[in-house]
Amino acid sequence: MLRFVEIIDEKISLDDKAKLEAYLAEAQEKVAEYEAASVTAKENNAKEEAALLDEKVKLEKWYAEKVEELLATVEVDAEKKTSEVVTIGKTVTFVEVGEDDEESYTIVGSAEADPFEGKISNDSPIARGLLERKVGDVVKIATPGGDMEVKIIKIQ
After folding, report:
1. What are the φ and ψ backbone dihedral angles of 90, each rounded to 5 degrees?
2. From which residue to which does any coiled coil extend (predicted)?
């Protein structure tokens, strides 16, 4: 599998950086909230509740640490637009032309594919038809069940 590895751009957009910073702020708020609640629980002799809150503090601190590490290691590209085109790792929302129901799939490598979890292989007919397309594009996709025409609504 490594022979066919594809390097994915590690640069993120300013929007993506702002999202990571918001996740970090939220985790830090939760740490403060859980720590305060733990102190209150200990004062009220609610040992089990205090222990549970202390575990939540540990988890949120760990999460905040990982987000901080990510923010410290990624490169921000001010020119990069968020989710410009469909690539591996992106979630694509589309609607079949003539239908109302939206469908969303995350495009992953074949080893990670799990259609029941909304993860389709980049080798699948649908993914191959969507790759490198943009929001608003109407794409004709040849599937084993026949051709389908879809319009891309959102890329995340």
Report:
1. -90, 155
2. 17-84
Residue 144: strand pairing partners:
none
Is the separation of the CB atoms in 120 and 128 below 8 Å?
A: no
For residue 156, give the nearest of 75, 74, 94, 110 by alpha carbon: 94
- By the 10 Å C-beta count (0-12 exposed, 13-18 middle, 19+ buried), 120 is classed as buried
Q: How far apart are CA 83 and CA 11, in angstroms?
A: 12
User: What would the pLDDT profile of 124-137 be if each residue is shown by its tens digit?
Assistant: 999 999 998 999 99
Model confidence over 69-125: pLDDT tens digits?
A: 988 888 887 766 555 789 888 899 999 998 989 999 999 888 888 989 999 999 999
